[in-house]
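Request from the bench team (R.T.):
"We need a structural guess for the complex before ordering more zinc ion. Sequence and SMILES attached. Just send the tokens back."

Command: build protein-zinc ion structure.
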Amino acid sequence: MNRALLLFYFCILLYTTKAISQTYNPFYGDIVNTVSASNIVTDLTTFENFGIKTNGSTAINNAKNWIVSRYQSLGYTDIVEQPFTYSGNTTNNIIVTKTGSVYPNTFIIIDAHYDTLNGPGTNDNGSGTVLLLEMARLLHNINTEYSIKFIHFSGEEAGLIGSNYYVNNTAIPENLDISLVFNIDQVGGVNGALNDTLICEYDASNPTENNAESLTKTNSLANCISLYSNLSTELSYAYGSDYVPFENAGKVITGLYEKNETPYSHTANDVLANMDPNYVFEVTKGSLGAALEFAVGISTLSTQEVLPSQKKNIKIYPNPSKGLVTVSSNFKSMTYYTVFISDILGKKVYEKALNKQTQTLDLSRLKKGVYILTFKNKTEVVSKKLILN
Ligand SMILES: [Zn+2]
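Reply to R.T.: structure attached below.
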């Protein structure tokens, strides 16, 4: 290999590293920190009070009008109601578009169904519905490179009718350039349980051409959840929700689902009192961080300004290291903090809770290479590069 070619490959590697590994972005963190727990409870209560939102009901129509009016009051103007009919009744998908400044014709779809079965569905899927509303509130004035479509599907409980309709009547005929479908369904948690883990779902079914990219995006999603919320994550297969028609059409999908699964979905007891609104709050924070990462939120800060994370004093030594690495921090709150290590593909390879100012980590089981160490406690996050050789 000649020198020019070697340099070319090196640049590609650097570019790839930059493009797909995530570290904590203080600009995104500042936005995430404005997620409102009280908005979430208020919206969940409103959603619950509409009642049982089945196809053809007054309740689903009232919920649809409420969702539309919420987007209008947030300042969105591109709001489309997409009617479709099944079992003799007409119901609507709601599609809200925010245009990106660099790639206006490439879309991140963030979706949640709002129809319910047998009960008010405050968890399934009021949780996803209000999460989208709160994200949309905070993203409205943020410049993003990619366009975002917030889609509230109907007809999910009857067999993914609304999402199938959208894929077959909009996405495919209009040849929409969809870079990712991010589906949120049932993230309410269980009242009284320790709701500290979130399932991130990736595509493991046919067709298989889109599966690797789905896993990459799902790893990014899990990493963002770790960076921007206090939740842990687990990966699992995607199934049985509105991403399925998209994955069948060859699109790249990812999704979120609660780890503690409510026993009340599709019953009259799927109500706020049986779920954990603080879990919805944390899932919203992580999802918003991920949405900013996927749609590439653009900070108005100049690159010359010192970001808060650069002022923090975290020492890693020796660096490069052969495997035993000592970390020393000056985090204000020393009750605990967590170190996450990601490889250059953004995949988390190590996580440990630390409780001392100076601590030695044994990383000898990790392969040689470049890693990003992220230190995080409740209020502060710092990322540093580490080389193992
Ligand atoms: Zn659902």
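Two things stood out. DSSP finds ten helices and 15 strands in the chain. Residues 22-295 form a domain with the Aminopeptidase fold (CATH 3.40.630.10).
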